[in-house]
């Protein structure tokens, strides 16, 4: 009987229920055309990462000096065999750029993941511990912030030795303070709310409070910062690669490709220099647009 | 044996300018099934006392007490882990702001079930059924459908009901209601208070009702405590306190109730609660008291028994020789206030 009585109210309930969180999110996100464009471009890049072996007509390291510095197809002397031309030792530019997504983008993702994990933990600890621990963590972060980012990354790579993974660690340390400060600030606002006290009254331990109660409520700004941080991470690893301290040749990391083409800057072979640069530029812009869109969709203060 | 015994509890906050006392010399007892109303202005230490009891005083506060016993456990010597177990199961708390006292990230069903699983060791299914039962008890229609709702999808009154359901989920022995009706509108206030008192009666819980609304406690509390600047000023049964206030502060508070104003101007208490810098050496209320004398300024009265209840004043109202005593000690309050 109770079931019968409650059924009508329940169905009415479901009809008037607010939209599913994801649909609401998409509503705000899709209103920003730039963000959608960024998302599309990044989707293409992700597709390239997954299926690089199928898309790329050639491998990324096979050299052939007979066809070195072939111009792109639309220029005189170009051919469809190498759509975007070849580099100084005859490697196909298009294939290298496609494979490059695996390095540049994957490095960006690794950097951001690493600094999110470490930064969130440090931020949570700082926000919860207060006192001495907080001061120490924040002052260390301040010191990191005072050094120019690339310089600090160089120092860290110099200590750890050059290479792809050390570059990842270096860049992760450089962008770490943003996450620590962001998380700490949200933690402090959230812990002042009654639900945290309620959880403590109910017997929640410290770790549980940090990760189960408070962290989910700090995620929105973190996601936005992560997507914006991707662009910084890609840019910084490319810079390290350009300086020869990141990914080592023949890996087709975009920054490393630029470094290889250094001697052609100002020469007639513009494509060897310009194309990796454009790839970096477009990716960074796409991530920034995506980040803006995410902020529009996730930040409650910007919602109307 | 009393369920809760506090003796000489102080909560101090070290600051650069000196130590701030949020609670000072707090002594109280609470029995099973009793409702204690705690009233006082904002910042008088009402909530802080309860937080101190649960070991939740915010950084960098420190607790000092001669005795802090709950249900036979000495909370002063107990380990953090044990305290969490005891407090989480036997003490529950309801907060002022229902919209922030539930975690916005999870559904109310999830939050209710979580407590039940943790403290009662229930399975997911048992917890779900119990959650529905609890929501029904606190008067939420169609509880099955509400389990999947997020706090922001419910109204303030509904959220407060959910909060009450969570508080009583583990059959606590002691319920702390920290201004449970302040953020609600008047029609809901009465409903929530009725709900609280009926639950309290059915389960024979001890309850502390913290409020700054005298009207709220008048009808619900058995015993009342008036706090001022971290100290208890007067303690008596509810009817005694309302009909025969003995402390000048209680009297002034009652006189300031809009419900009691009959024509003319609404009575107020001049001045503000003393802060860190201007904390008086004598009676904390002396700077604002109409009847303050030289003795009040020089000496701090102790909490002592007097007629019905206990209070902290040299010249309790209703004392036959009161006027004479005030005169010999040289009245200064009236001059200051005129």
UniProtKB/TrEMBL annotation, chain A:
Chain segments annotated as transmembrane: 35-60, 103-129, 149-176, 269-291
Family matches, as InterPro entries: BP-dependent_transpt_permease, MetI-like, MetI-like_sf, OppC_N
Membrane-related topology note: Multi-pass membrane protein
Keyword Transmembrane helix recorded: yes
Top-rank taxon: Bacteria
Keyword entries, A-Z: Cell membrane, Membrane, Peptide transport, Protein transport, Transmembrane, Transmembrane helix, Transport
Cellular compartment(s): Cell membrane
PANTHER family (alphabetical): D,D-DIPEPTIDE TRANSPORT SYSTEM PERMEASE PROTEIN DDPC-RELATED (PTHR43386:SF1), OLIGOPEPTIDE TRANSPORT SYSTEM PERMEASE PROTEIN APPC (PTHR43386)
Family: Belongs to the binding-protein-dependent transport system permease family.
Protein name: ABC transporter permease subunit
Provenance organism: Hohaiivirga grylli
Upper lineage: Bacteria, Pseudomonadati, Pseudomonadota, Alphaproteobacteria, Hyphomicrobiales
TrEMBL record, chain B:
Domain spans labelled ABC transporter: 4-254
Gene3D superfamilies the record matches: P-loop containing nucleotide triphosphate hydrolases
Bilayer disposition of the protein: Peripheral membrane protein
Subcellular location per the Swiss-Prot or TrEMBL entry: Cell inner membrane
One matching Pfam family: ABC_tran
Keywords, in A-Z order: ATP-binding, Cell membrane, Membrane, Nucleotide-binding, Transport
InterPro entries, per the entry: AAA+_ATPase, ABC_Ni/Peptide_Import, ABC_transporter-like_ATP-bd, Oligopep_ABC_C, P-loop_NTPase
Domain of life the protein comes from: Bacteria
A molecular-function term among this protein's GO annotations: ATP binding
Matches recorded under NCBIfam families: oligo_HPY
Similarity field: Belongs to the ABC transporter superfamily.
Protein name (Swiss-Prot/TrEMBL): ABC transporter ATP-binding protein
Lineage: Bacteria, Pseudomonadati, Pseudomonadota, Alphaproteobacteria, Hyphomicrobiales
